[in-house]
Amino acid sequence: MKHNPLQVVFNASDYIYKPDPNPGGSLEDFYGGRDDEFKEHKASLERQINHIQHHLESSRTNLSMVKVELNPSALAKSHRPMRTLFPANKSPHIGGLNIGTLLFQVTPNSLNWLKSRVQGAELESRLIYDERKKKKVYKPSLARSETGAVERISIYSSDEKLNFSSSEAVNWFKNERVSKGYLVELIEYVETNTSGYEISDQHLEILKVNLKDRLHRLGGGVVVSKASSDIENSSTLYVRLYKAQAQESIIDFSNAVIIRENNENFDFDRLRHELLLKVLADSPLVKNVTLSPIVSRSDLSPSVMSSDVKIPTRIQGNDYPVVGVIDSGVKNPALSSWKLGTSKGFSDIDCDPDHGSQVASLLVGGKALNPQLENIEDDGCLLYDIWMPIHSERNSFFDNFDGLGDFFGCLDIEVKQARSKGVRVFNFSINFKELVKDDSYSFAARQIDRISKKHDVIFIISAGNLASLDFRARWPSQLAITSDIDRIQQPAEAISAITVGAINPPGYDEHIYGAPTVYSRRGPGVAMGVKPDVVHYGGFSSQTAVPGVLTLSSSNTIMNEGGTSFSAPFVAKTLATIEHRLNKQVSRNALISMLVHHSDFPRALNDKEITTSIKRRFVGFGSPTTSENMLVTDDHSITVLFEGKLNRSEVAEFEFQWPESLVNEGKCSGTATLTLAYDPVTNAKFGAEYCRVNVDSFLQQEKLEKNEWKYRKNCDSIWKIEVGKDAYYEKNQIEHGLKWWPIKKYKKVMKQGVGKSKNWRLKVTSTEREPGDFPTDGINFCVIMTIEDHQKKSKYIFDEVKQSLTATGVDIKSIHVTNQIDVEVKS
């Protein structure tokens, strides 16, 4: 029986310090030995710059933006052309699209500077003997290195700002589940005071005045305002077009303007929309224009079961985990005693009668309803019921909200109120029918991140369901990913949230147990981010007599249900139970790292033919175990939590010895698992490069090199393939090593033993994409490390590791874990 609690390092700050700066590497010549090709490339860039200069002259503006596409081998931050071609004091980096596609602010003078730097790049390669490397290497000038790093330079055109026509927009707005407006992302130009390259606030104000003037020329009915009232989203506008005679024009870039219940006055005139879109796309202030997404829940077809299940009864005076249910209202009377609070701002006819009750029934009585399922938390859960106007037949979501900004503003208020009552985990089974994109981070995801950070909460979001016509063939066929039709929907890419996909429950031979369901949407998130984060049982895709996931409707009918909406509450309950058992004294990073650390791939995916890339897209880090298994271990293993805060250029590290039971003649055996979670640092204006700081952790073993003992990494990412040192090394690091992603997991299985030393070290480091990205108040992180005897023979691992850490000065203590949850089941 497991009885050793999770161990926590209480003096983590003692192991954080700022090392001496690394002088860095030499410049890279991307055309080394290929001088004829470089000559042609250089001439091509000069022609591209000339074209941009002519465009700027004809537009009669002193301020514009260029798109710079990097050489695929120049994605690393050390190769970016920002020291001589595009220095921040002349051509600031103001945005991005795909990975390696950067947007720079330019003026006539900065373009002249750029051309002179490119022209000054030497045409011949410089091959020089390097004393340190003991071989000849290419030593380019900074100008040649950066010129070679740039693949192409072009004007960011108005055609790239739109991916739909005015006719398509009008047809889109006719859907009742759509917000009647456009989301417009603005370019955030930067004031510069460098002599000859000045851009003042007056220049930026002229651009705004010109755009406002052109919008007013469209006549009445044009309403333009901030998309959200929060300060952080000042760069996104919400643009609506009403009939000219029904609504006066309002153009306000500084405030949110809410107009409710005015949809009957919306203007569906295609020509006016075409003119509006042209005005927006032609403005140098506008980065892109997108259509508001459809609110979606993609319900499957449930079947009624005849099973007789008793919902547990709350024992008054007892404490329980608590989850906020952001859904269509919990209307089942049997669940009313479990409510901690209710926020009902909408009528019954606007909210689905059953969905919220079904989700809540899994939180309260998921184990009683589904005794056939593994890894389900003990029954009993307090509910904070937040009603939302989503109905399976009549969807009035945007009759009640003037756009997504209005919805998230209301949600912010609701979460604040729930947080005051102790709610930390929120189940959010709402999706928007807009697929996640690779070159942009959605407005909805940014709002989830903002609210999560503001109130220190975690959203558990369902990955979304495919419509029945789009179901994949049953696992494991059709694994090849050839289109994005089954990709997750917004806001499931939210980096601060836990996104949950669905796997098959046991008992039905037509669907392999533990395999991804045919309806569950898959990842990746933006820029190869791991989404879904985890998976859980989601029920079967069709009506069957075999119980999949059983839920309770509002009328207390037992339903055999399928959908990621019913996977999410299982995970929400686990996170809430961890927090409950740790007396709510635990950080977001600790909760997330514990969930991921104790998740594993379902057995159905342990086939050699299923690549790690396929696994990650469909199940993320895998399926989690229960909170009880997360918080205690056997004697043959130990789990240690190390939590702290890094400031810029700091590292965290502490040394320890491998347990003696697993050391044989210097070789260390066993299994090591390491999981890291840290506060994400994001900026949506940089597109796919929205994650701005990378924190990484390493488990290192001492190694003898040239008669000197040095620590070397000995624990790889669970996703890592052999990335090599080829031209695509940085791209592979992002895709397979999860560089820039705020959740990382590493594992090392040492069956035969490795190395010649029992001395090991845990190390945490950080990197920012560009100077200034690192937050001034630092980054919180949490690392969880488990060391175990994979043969489960030794009963001394826990004591040996704890003694080793204590001997080196680590203040390590057992965390206090409360008992199991008590409920009463009446017969």
Q: Can you identify the CATH class of the largest domain?
A: Alpha Beta
Strand content: 15-25%
CATH topology of the largest domain: Rossmann fold
What is the CATH superfamily label of the largest domain?
Peptidase S8/S53 domain
Total strand segments:
40
The pLDDT mean sits at 89
Protein structure class? alpha+beta
Number of discrete domains: 4
Helix percentage: 10-25%
Break the fold down into its secondary structure elements and pairings.
Blueprint: E1 4-5, E2 7-9, E3 16-17, H1 35-59, E4 64-70, E5 93-96, E6 101-106, H2 108-119, E7 127-130, E8 135-138, H3 142-149, E9 150-155, H4 166-173, E10 182-186, H5 201-216, E11 222-226, E12 236-241, E13 250-251, H6 270-282, E14 286-291, E15 295-296, E16 303-304, E17 322-327, E18 339-343, H7 355-369, E19 382-387, H8 397-400, H9 403-419, E20 425-428, E21 431-432, H10 443-455, E22 458-462, E23 498-503, E24 534-537, E25 549-552, E26 558-561, H11 568-581, H12 588-597, E27 599-600, H13 612-619, E28 623-624, H14 627-631, E29 632-633, E30 637-646, E31 651-657, E32 663-664, E33 667-678, E34 693-705, E35 708-713, E36 716-717, H15 729-736, E37 743-754, E38 759-768, E39 779-788, H16 797-807, E40 812-814
Helix pairs in contact: 1-2, 4-6, 7-11, 9-10
